[in-house]
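Figure caption, in words: inputs first, then the predicted bound structure.
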Amino acid sequence: MDVKAIRQQFPILDQEVNGHPLVYLDSSATSQKPLQVIEAVDAYYRQDNSNVHRGVHTLGTRATDKYEGAREKVRRFINAKSTAEVIFTRGTTTSINTVAYSYARANLKAGDEIVITPMEHHSNIIPWQQAAKATGATLKYIPLQDNGTFTLDDVRETITGNTKIVAVTHVSNVLGTVNPIKEVAQIAHQNGAVIVIDGAQGAPHMKIDVKEMDCDFYAFSGHKMCGPTGIGVLYGKKELLEDMEPVEFGGEMIDFVNLYDSTWKELPWKFEGGTPIIAGAIGLGAAIDFLNDVGLENITAHEQRLADYALENLRKIDGISIYGPEKRAALVTFNLDDVHPHDTATVLDAEGVAVRAGHHCAQPLMKWLDVVATARASFYLYNTEEDIDRLVDGLLKTKEYFGDVF
Ligand SMILES: Cc1ncc(COP(=O)(O)O)c(C=O)c1O
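Bound structure (pyridoxal-5'-phosphate present):
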């Protein structure tokens, strides 16, 4: 993989921040966008802008073809059976909420269980808390090991015949843990439950095969995988989606509207009420083309090298605490003893190094780690070992600056 050539595709990386060349280590929050994506969105607005599925005019046909073409690209990207299983949403949060509103509220009753883990992002906790409150179901947690993984024995112990929904993140945005989705899906299915995967940190970084994983729902966001903000995907098995009610009602999603009742379009459009996110979907399609050109296997391997290199070098810093397992996705969450992570991130920013500091939308996990917040460096296909060297140098400067606390 030619990282230098890849970097040239990302104009934003070619700038100085606070007098230093920018090192962007916050791709887990949102990734940068390659020219291919920027130009695809630009070309749509310049040449094809029109509403979809409506007019018979030429622009309308072009916009519809591009929008539906993007859906087919997503289908291939995740190996779904049919485009009926690919719903465009605003992102992971909306995708999970769609399942929690539509599937959970219709299928749960008092005494049923929803099983999740303490490593979930708020977007994969709160929708289930709310669904549990609305239906009388109980929320249960698969316990974590000290290194931030869970065992399949604990999964078997937690999921029971009363469990109706299991919702697990593919990759933890804090710990970097990569969860054994296929195995958890098997256990969920043996108990008659459906499994919902939060793929926000999975889809951008590794080959996704929803058929092979046998997940019932898979949610992800375009903006974390080189695409625009405001677009995401809910994959769902057709037989489940067919039985589900839409959560948004209005234009585009209807078949017939009478004075007192209405009928819905077929899948996937019954879940896409209102004018859809046309430019976003087209941009996501371009992002998928870009990722496919580089090769997901190459991206995963490159990120693995970066994660190993980062772990090896960060560990040499006295007073650093690193959270999460040895074998992990391309991110490292850490704290420097007694330095607040916001201070760490501020010193790093002064050095031109962008990292995230805070609770990472995972407050239950912060509690489990017994910290109020952490700093996080996350890597993507455009990052290099030199970026990590700059991070390490910045952290040594942070230590120097807050010297007396060590
Ligand atoms: C694991 C995980 N789940 C869900 C989300 C929410 O994604 P979005 O804000 O794009 O809906 C994120 C975003 O950081 C995430 O990291």
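The CA atoms of residues 311 and 331 lie 9 Å apart.
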